[in-house]
Amino acid sequence: MYKKYSSTAIFGKGWFRVLIFVVSFLSLLLISLAILVFGFHKGDFSSSGIQSLTKDGNFWTMTLIFFVLSVLITFAFRHWIDRKSFISLGLDIVGRWREAVAGSMLAVFIISAVSLLLKATGHLKWTEIIFDPKILFLSFGSTVLISFSEELIFRGYILNNLLGSFSNWIALLISAILFMIFHWTSLGFFSLANSFVMGIILGLNYIYTRNLWFSICFHISWNFMIGPILGFSGDESFQTLLQTELNGDENITGGTNGLQGSVFLLAVFLVSLAALYLFLQKKTNPVSQPVPGRI
Questions:
Q1: CA–CA distance from 148 to each of 14, 18, 190 (Å)?
Q2: In terms of Cα–Cα distance, which of 280, 271, 290 is closest to 215?
Q3: Cβ atoms of 268 and 113 closer than 8 Å
Q4: Burial level of 257, CB count in 10 A (0-12/13-18/19+)?
Q5: Where are the domains of the chain?
Q6: Structure pTM?
Q7: Nearest to 139 by CA among 49, 32, 237, 41
Q8: At what angle are helices 56-76 and 133-151 packed, to 10 degrees?
Q9: pLDDT of 70-88, one tens digit each?
């Protein structure tokens, strides 16, 4: 039997539910981080102590904590605060496999297009291929957990609830800004702009379909291709399939920010965003078909 939910949330304003959700999640995440620092590094809160949490076995610990917290907190808020089912966030996969495939393919297309631009302009060179199936398998596993968690948070809960308080486009902009802030690793313009536009792309399909599988699969393909496969992450501390060498203007290559800081990526992102918008508009608002028998 299915559980019946009240249509009335505990807090009537969607933006207020989002505010409480964000504060709760960040508080628990910081508490978990503090516990790890005390447990593994004896309270070393220096930059080196905190950065070490993203390396080796600690990275998997952080990934699992992030995933578990994301699922549990989102489920709790959806169940007891929103008073709706967890799956209603957009997790129903029935009839959505085409959207899932489309999300993956769009991510692959964008990364491939930027790679070709960098290669054609002499900014990119792959020097070696190191195939390690174990590392690739573990990298894919962590990618799936992180990508699913972020989509559950930013599109599933945050954007879903913002849509109850604001128009589609205002809600989308707010969720994209929060996504950009969450991925804020530098003050570089292109890095911030790319994170923002990516948040728009990931949320655009959701405001038309209220389903998460497009953005989940886009996010998984994006993170896996840009890091473990092509070596564009900007982090040289972990092994990738292709050993990447980037040369030239950092505004083009992305520099230490990885591909996320490239103007080429911003250009391809904007073209892809426009194409996705036009496709969704046409899909949801098809041109009227001619009446049979009428010329």
A1: 22, 18, 25
A2: 280
A3: yes
A4: buried
A5: 93-284
A6: 0.89
A7: 237
A8: 30
A9: 999 999 999 999 999 999 9
